Every structure is written in structure tokens, then in C-alpha cells.
């Protein structure tokens, strides 16, 4: 038997693996006096016989005693890969467990070696919740036990995050407006009559609001929101109109009332809802005899009151005004209203449809967001102004009204990408307003699908369906917004 030893490692072999070096050592000639290479694992024969191996190559027990071939199998890298995957899987599971634990106990200290006290306290709190929920359920049951009472998460004052969607200014007769514009444009200010001066206030109010929409004009540079409400830009038209109107509390003529309405719309576009609400109170007292102006102000009153959580300036029961005639301006002359040709579609159909939709919103504010009578609407045992009780019959009634409104809506105004840009814009506004009214209806019940907020509650099918409908409507609003943004049909503060 030859006494072979492995050759020493050369500098050029530093890039090889240890197993490549060992393979080369098998074929290398031995050099006298060289120390044999030691291996960190036992040879195949010693491992098979389960005896101790000296770790040399060749092994003394194999070569010197039994004359067996001394071989070493290369280790599999698969085990190392599996161990890495196992560690990564453990890290992922640990991260998910920490996330779930923080949702269950938000204040838990994960660095605490003994978090048992915090967990036990959380379980005790949850054990006390069912008796309190049962007590609330018994208090919610009224004389009519067949009617389900829903617990609202909002305050009775109803602070709503509702974006104003009233962008239709169908309260000015367009031909008359431009006729007066030509007359005023040709005269100096000193020669204007009292009627023409009032019109000048209307003109500046229209210009102030129109600058908020100037990105509709392809020939004008786009104006940012900051520039639009800046003191030196658009606001100067508003303040000129304000000075021309003089005493806004004495707006008795139609032209001044129309100018006041445009100023209200401008304040809404500039997010000055407090000033808008003050102007609405002035305009409402003089608007009941003018259908278009009255219902435009009526819509703004409901929207602004909903956003600010204030009572309506005029209740639905106090209104007996008929809706505006569904005829466009070109068919209204000094001699009377001309019958439009058969099949003619009027924008005032959409205006009246929006008015009816806003009236449904007013009923939602009345039944779902009550403003007063806390003894009947706020649960006993809760702080007043924190929780109120909503009748399921009221919710079903409003759902029926919304369904009836959609069924009565003309197919011309339903969602459809075909048609003139003005018609498509109105369709989007109606669709968006309908979705927002639905969201305001279902928003107070979203806590029924929250695991944390519904702890201890007896969530029945109706409560859960209202919450699920709110989530579905929210997704629909997001889809509508994406579609509107892609088409680019809505300007200004939309």
C-alpha cells in the first residue's frame, strides 16, 4: 500500500472549493514528510460501520487495517437550501402573528418577557362586553318588537364628509343674460341704469365662479386651486360683485338673487362653507317665488347643512313649490313657453332628478342623523351625542325611495359613454350624487363589519347587510372617480 499524502494548497487554488481540492488530492503524488489533509467528516466506510474515523485522507482504519477504498461523499446543498426556506417561513409566520396580535391588543409590548398580564386584562374586558351589549339590546327594543333597531356609530349631529356635487347653474335664462351683456358692454359705467348695475354684479359673480372652471377652455392655461382663490386673482371678481350688490339682505329682485346664488357657489368652490351658509340664509327668504333659483338654493341648503351638521333652513314639509318646467331656455320667450319638438331632452329633467335625490338626502339627515330629541334617539347608559338609534323601517323606506328614483330616471340620463360632452358630464354628476347619497345612508353602520368595534354586539343579518352595502358603495365611488378622472369631463373643484 502506497503511503500517499495530498499536496499543499497553491495560491492559484484559492478560488476552488474544498471538495475540488480534495478531489485533486486523490490524484496528486505524495511528497515525503508532508502532513495528510484532515477532513471534517467521517469517510463512507467508517460511517457505514459506525466506527470512529481519524478524519485523514486516506483514513488509517480503511487503508492500513482493512485495505478498503477511502471515499468521501460530497454533502448535498439541498439541506442548506431547505434550512434557509424554513427560516424565511418562520420569519413570515412571526410577522403575521405580530400583526394579528397588535390588532387584537394594540398596546401590547412585544419586548416584555411576560406579556400575560396585558393579555389577561384584554380577555377580562371582552368578557364584560357581552352583558353590556345585552343590556343595550334590551333597551333598544321598543313597543313594536318586530322592528329592528340599528345602532349608529355617528353623533346625532351628523358631521358628514360629503363633497358638494351641485354644479348645475340652471337658474339663469341664457339668451337674456347675453343680451344684457351686449348692452352693458357698450356703455360706460356712469350711463348704466339701476337694472344694468344690478346685472353688472351678476356678471362679476359669474366671472368669479367661471374662473374655477377655466380648465374647460382649451385655449386658456390651467389655473391651480391656489391661484383661483388667491386675493389677487379670482377673488377680485367676487369682491367687486359683493360691492355692487351692496346690501345683500335686501336682494328683492331676481337679478340680485341670481348674483347672490353665484356668489354662494363660488364660496363653496373656495371651501368657505361658513360664508356660503350665511349667504344661503339671506337668499332663501327671497327665492320661494322663483322656481329655478329656489330649488337651486334648496339643494345647496341641504348639502351645506349636511356637511356642517346644521339643521336645514327650510324643512321638506314646508315646501309646496312646484318643480321647474322641464324646458330649456331656447323654448322660453317673452310670449310664453313654446312646446319643444317630440323627443327633445331637456337638461332640466336632470336638474329636477337631482332635486328629488337631494330631498332623499334630506330625509336621510332627518331619520339617520337626528339633530335633537336625544331622549328618544340616544341609548340609555351612553353619553348624549355619542350613539343614536336608527329605525330599520326608516332605512328600508329610504332604500325604497332610492330604488324608485333610479327606476323613474330617464334612460337618457343613466350612465352611458355615448353622447355630447355636456350630457356625459351631467350623467356623471347624477351617478356620483346617487352613490354619495347611498354612502351617507349606510356610513353609520360600518362598525357592524369591524371585529374590534362590534365586540359584544348581536349583529343580525340586517345590520350586517347595511354595513356590507356601505363597503360596496364605497368601492363603487372609487370606480366612478377613476372613470371620471380618465375621461376628464369634470372640471374645477371636482
Architecture overview:
- Keywords: DNA-binding, Metal-binding, Nucleus, Transcription, Transcription regulation, Zinc.
- This is Fungal specific transcription factor factor.
- GO terms for molecular function: DNA-binding transcription factor activity, RNA polymerase II-specific; sequence-specific DNA binding; zinc ion binding.
- The chain has helices spanning 18-27, 44-49, 60-66, 78-104, 116-140, 174-185, 194-210, 225-228, 235-245, 254-269, 273-284, 291-308, 347-367, 374-377, 392-408, 421-442, 461-487; strands spanning 149-152, 332-333, 336-337, 388-391.
- The chain has 494 residues and is mostly helical.
- Among the domains are: 1-99, CD2-Gal4 (Irregular); 150-156 and 346-494, no CATH class.
- The strands form 2 sheets. A two-stranded antiparallel ribbon has the order 1-4.
- Mean pLDDT is 70; it is low at 1-31, 129-146, 155-169, 285-289 and 377-385.
N-C termini distance: 94 Å
For the sheet with most strands, the description reads:
2 strands, antiparallel
As laid out across the biggest beta sheet, the strand order is 1-4
In percent terms, what proportion of residues is strand?
under 5%
User: How would the global form be characterised?
Assistant: elongated
SSE order, as H and E? HHHHHEHHHHHHHEEHHEHHH
Overall pLDDT: 70
Poorly predicted runs of 5 or more residues: 1-31, 129-146, 155-169, 285-289, 377-385
Q: What is the tally of helical segments?
A: 17
Radius of gyration equals 39 Å
Structure class:
mainly alpha
In total, the number of strands is: 4
**Helix content range of the residues, please?**
40-55%
Assembly state of the chains shown = single chain
Amino acid at each position: 500500500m502506497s503511503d500517499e499524502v495530498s499536496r499543499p494548497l497553491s495560491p492559484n487554488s484559492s478560488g476552488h472549493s474544498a471538495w475540488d481540492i480534495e478531489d485533486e488530492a486523490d490524484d496528486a503524488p505524495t511528497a515525503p514528510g508532508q502532513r495528510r489533509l484532515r477532513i471534517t467528516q467521517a469517510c463512507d466506510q467508517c460511517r457505514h460501520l459506525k466506527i470512529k474515523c481519524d478524519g485523514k485522507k486516506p483514513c488509517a482504519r480503511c487503508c492500513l487495517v482493512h485495505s478498503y477504498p477511502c471515499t468521501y461523499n460530497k454533502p448535498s446543498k439541498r439541506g442548506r437550501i431547505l434550512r434557509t426556506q424554513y427560516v424565511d417561513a418562520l420569519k413570515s409566520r412571526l410577522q403575521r402573528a405580530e400583526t394579528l396580535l397588535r390588532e387584537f391588543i394594540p398596546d401590547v409590548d412585544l419586548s416584555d418577557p411576560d406579556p400575560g398580564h396585558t393579555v389577561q386584562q384584554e380577555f377580562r374586558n371582552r368578557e364584560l362586553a357581552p352583558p353590556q351589549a345585552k343590556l343595550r339590546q334590551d333597551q333598544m327594543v321598543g313597543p313594536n318588537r318586530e322592528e329592528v333597531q340599528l345602532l349608529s356609530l355617528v353623533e346625532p349631529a351628523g358631521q358628514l364628509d360629503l363633497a358638494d356635487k351641485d354644479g348645475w347653474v340652471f337658474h339663469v335664462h341664457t339668451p337674456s343674460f347675453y343680451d344684457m351683456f351686449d348692452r352693458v358692454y357698450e356703455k360706460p359705467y356712469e350711463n348704466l341704469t339701476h337694472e344694468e348695475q344690478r346685472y353688472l354684479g351678476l356678471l362679476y359673480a359669474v366671472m368669479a365662479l367661471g374662473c374655477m372652471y377655466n380648465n374647460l377652455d382649451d385655449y386658456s392655461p390651467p389655473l391651480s386651486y391656489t391661484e383661483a382663490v388667491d386675493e389677487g386673482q379670482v377673488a377680485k371678481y367676487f369682491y367687486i360683485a359683493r360691492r355692487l350688490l351692496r346690501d345683500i339682505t335686501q336682494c328683492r329682485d331676481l337679478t340680485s338673487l341670481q348674483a347672490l346664488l353665484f356668489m354662494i357657489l363660488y364660496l363653496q368652490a373656495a371651501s368657505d362653507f361658513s360664508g356660503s351658509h350665511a349667504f344661503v340664509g339671506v337668499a332663501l327668504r327671497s327665492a320661494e317665488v322663483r322656481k329655478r333659483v329656489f330649488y337651486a338654493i334648496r339643494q345647496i341648503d341641504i348639502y351645506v347643512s349636511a356637511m356642517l351638521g346644521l339643521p336645514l333652513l327650510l324643512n321638506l314639509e314646508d315646501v309646496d313649490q312646484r318643480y321647474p318646467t322641464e324646458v330649456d331656455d331656447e323654448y322660453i320667450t317673452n310670449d310664453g313657453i313654446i312646446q319643444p319638438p317630440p323627443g327633445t331632452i331637456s337638461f332640466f329633467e336632470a336638474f329636477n332628478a337631482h332635486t328629488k335625490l337631494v330631498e332623499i338626502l334630506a330625509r336621510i339627515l332627518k331619520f339617520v342623523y337626528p339633530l335633537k330629541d336625544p331622549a328618544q334617539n340616544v341609548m340609555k347608559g351612553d353619553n348624549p351625542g355619542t350613539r343614536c338609534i336608527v329605525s330599520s323601517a326608516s332605512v328600508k323606506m329610504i332604500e325604497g325611495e332610492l330604488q324608485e328614483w333610479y327606476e323613474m330616471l330617464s334612460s337618457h340620463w343613466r350612465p352611458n359613454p355615448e353622447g355630447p360632452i355636456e350630457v356625459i358630464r351631467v350623467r356623471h354628476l347624477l351617478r356620483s350624487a346617487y352613490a354619495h347619497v347611498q354612502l351617507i345612508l349606510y356610513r353609520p353602520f360600518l362598525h357592524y363589519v369591524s371585529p374590534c368595534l362590534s365586540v359584544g354586539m348581536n349583529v343580525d343579518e340586517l345590520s350586517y347587510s347595511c354595513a356590507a352595502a356601505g363597503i360596496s358603495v364605497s368601492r363603487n365611488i372609487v370606480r366612478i372617480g377613476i372613470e371620471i378622472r380618465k375621461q376628464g369631463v369634470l372640471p374645477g373643484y371636482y
